Amino acid sequence: MVKTKVLCDKNFIVGEIDPRLFGSFAEHMGRVIYTGIYEPQNSRSDEAGFRRDVLDAVKEMGVTTVRYPGGNFVSAYHWEDGVGPKEDRPRRLELAWKSIETNEFGTDEFMQWVKKAGVSPIFTVNLGTRGIDEAVQYLEYCNFPGGTKYSEMRKSYGIKEPYGVKMWCLGNEMDGGWQIGHKTASEYGRLAAEAGKAMKTVDSDIELIACGSSLSTMSTYPQWDMEVLEQTYEVIDYLALHQYYAGQEKGTEAFLAQTLDMEEYIKTIRSAAQVIKQKKRSAREIKFSVDEWGVWAGPGNTVNEEIAENPWQIAPSVSEQIYTMEDALLFAGMQMVILRNADVIKIACQSLITNVSSCIMTEEGGGLWRQTIYYPFYYFANYAHGVVLKNVLLGETYRCEEFEEVPYLDILAVWNEDKREIALFMVNRCEGESMKCDIHLQGFGLKEIRMSKALYAKDKKMTNQYNHNAVIPKENNAVSIEDDCCIAEILPLSFNVIRLGI
After folding, report:
1. DSSP code of 111?
2. 141-146, Cβ contacts within 8 angstroms, sequence gap of 24 or more
3. What CATH number does the domain located at 18-234+242-258+289-332+348-383 have?
4. Is the pLDDT of residue 170 over 70?
């Protein structure tokens, strides 16, 4: 049995967890919108066409914010196409995913949906094929009270009160050569700064998110981030980081170790922001938004090939990735990395909300089922409230091709003072052995074990596709407390949640 010791102290914290860290992302891609969150023909849908079962699952999952309408989709999107009477809305060639967009679902439908889901919206403006004018006009439509062209347009469609959307992304992944309207860092930085200034003239209360690097493997990283920060530092509030990981073919140890790359990625971007702050002698503190993140499932999910084989369809079934137990462990690890940087990361959006790299899978005309990755998100979103505790990890490590020293245990400890509770989230990266963890929580005074759950499967490649309850959380009774120490035995390749009352 692998043995690990963890030391935490009540007086040493990382930072407070922003509720917006438990966000998701809805893009007009594949079946995310149509037959995902919106399907008027489904008996499970309400009078507005929103699937009630999806709304219930989103609420249960604990989602707090949702980013819309893209994603790559937004970089050629005309927001005006998606408002007003549905019979007057045009069908368009959708260039990002090579499909037909009906525009049956748009801004007003999304705002109705977020109200029912109980989440906050994050909107993205098109800085690919469009620019400052359209960004300001979109903001005017959403947030200006009335008496102007676009605010009156909104009111004429029956929406009297402004939406008051607070968070706005200035384009999407503009560093990527795949992006329609792709720009250099200098070109994008100047456009984002000018669009941002104009938007804040209309509504000074909004928060703006600029595009950082789309992946840690981008050839322009981290120079892109430095240049964009140089040009936008006094305008924006957040720099966006996007990150996806695949690599299952490398083997489990290397696959799960990729969270160390994510740690380094965030560390580098934090440093870049600090350099620009000092260079500008600025008092402002730029924060970060990981507004696209997730695991890219194993071989066979080649979205570009799928699109090429069946182009120009309406809501085609593309990139409907099926996640394994192994994928859920990396997913949980990525979520822990984000939370371990809670002092500077204030927004995060798991990508996507239904059907494409998603926690929730829907059947057209039928019901839904929860992927393996649903459960880590659920536990973090529902129980990782309060402050993240610093920890010292003393335990065994392993070596893989990309990393010299990878701890077998990945752990996050969260202190919720209001509920007098510590929540422990753990991944055992060891495939062959269980692990004994001695977690010393100094200065707390442990009183009770309120919950102990484990997500585990005998086969690491098991999914919930056919047996929807194949990989679900189960009780772990091998947990005890002695004074200020929680002693837990956790299974190989498992994700674990322990809640301790103080």
Report:
1. H
2. 141/79, 141/83, 141/107, 142/107, 143/202, 143/203, 143/206, 144/202, 144/203
3. 3.20.20.80
4. yes
Catalytic residue among 94, 104, 134, 292: 292
Q: Where in the chain is the domain with CATH 2.60.40.1180?
A: 2-11+387-501
Catalytic residue flag (residue 292):
yes
The pTM of the full predicted model, rounded to 2 decimals, is 0.96
Q: Which one from 80, 101, 173, 227 is the annotated catalytic residue?
A: 173
How high is the pLDDT of residue 145?
A: 97
Q: What is the pLDDT of residues 56-96, one digit of tens each?
A: 999 999 999 999 999 999 999 999 999 999 999 999 999 99
Q: What is the rounded distance in angstroms from the CA atom of residue 382 to the CA atom of residue 59?
A: 10
Start-to-end CA distance of the chain, whole Å, equals 29
203-212 per-position pLDDT tens digit: 999 999 999 9
DSSP state of 90: P
Q: Which CATH class is domain 2-11+387-501?
A: mainly beta
Contact, 24 vs 380, CB < 8 A?
A: no
Query: Pairing between strand 2-16 and 23-25?
Result: unpaired
**For residue 308, is pLDDT > 80?**
no
CB of 292 closer than 8 Å to CB of 351 = yes
